[in-house]
């Protein structure tokens, strides 16, 4: 049966029969901490190594995007990366996540890092790697692209951010302030 749900004369939702749809009213205000939108990339079984021997940041070819509904004045974007198995060979590695409003930016830049630390993500011997970063400067309805970059701390020594056959995820979600 079609109808509306109201409280104190204010419409919260409308139901239609064909097709059966419940539509929330556009005037609803969601609480702080509410996830507004999200983007997820998950791979249960990596088919290759994501690695480098370079001492300068190298693009890992992993990119996700999200189009925030609000500006950074009203929300923030949480960006997460997790690898089930990382590996080093006689050196440590460092990784970072950069952002852009263009897809496919494969050059790391200190001005677009989500974290200003020299060592944002440590990649060590045979363990998992995980990081969570906040993006707090963006415009509403402007797609944000996030890419992972990796470097070795010792020239010629291999660092694997993601081991072949390991599970990994890379995701972002917008949260209401």
Describe the structure.
The protein is mainly beta. The protein is 0% helix and 53% strand. Strands 4, 5, 7, 10, 12 and 13 form a 6-stranded antiparallel beta sheet that branches. A 4-stranded antiparallel beta sheet has the order 6-11-8-9, with no helix packed on it. Strands 1-2-3 form a 3-stranded antiparallel beta sheet, with no helix packed on it. A hairpin with a 4-residue loop joins strand 2 and strand 3.
Fold topology:
Elements: E1 3-7, E2 10-16, E3 21-24, E4 35-43, E5 50-52, E6 58-66, E7 75-88, E8 93-100, E9 121-123, E10 127-135, E11 144-152, E12 159-162, E13 168-176
Antiparallel strand pairs: 1-2, 2-3, 4-13, 5-12, 6-11, 7-10, 7-12, 7-13, 8-9, 8-11
List the keywords.
177 residues; mainly beta; six-stranded antiparallel sheet; Jelly Rolls; 2 domains
Summarize this entry quickly.
By secondary structure, the protein is mainly β.
Pattern of helices and strands: EEEEEEEEEEEEE
User: What characteristic shape results from the CA principal axes?
Assistant: elongated
Number of DSSP strands? 13
- Total discrete domains: 2
Into which percent range does the helicity of residues fall? Answer: under 10%
Class derived from helix and strand content: mainly beta
Q: Span between N and C termini? A: 36 Å
| Unreliable stretches | none
CATH class of the largest domain: Mainly Beta
- Rg over CA atoms: 21 Å
Please tally the helical runs, counting DSSP H or I stretches of 4 or more residues: 0
Q: Can you tell me the CATH architecture of the largest domain?
A: Sandwich
**Mean of all residue-level pLDDT scores:** 87
Largest sheet: 6 strands, antiparallel
Strand content: over 45%
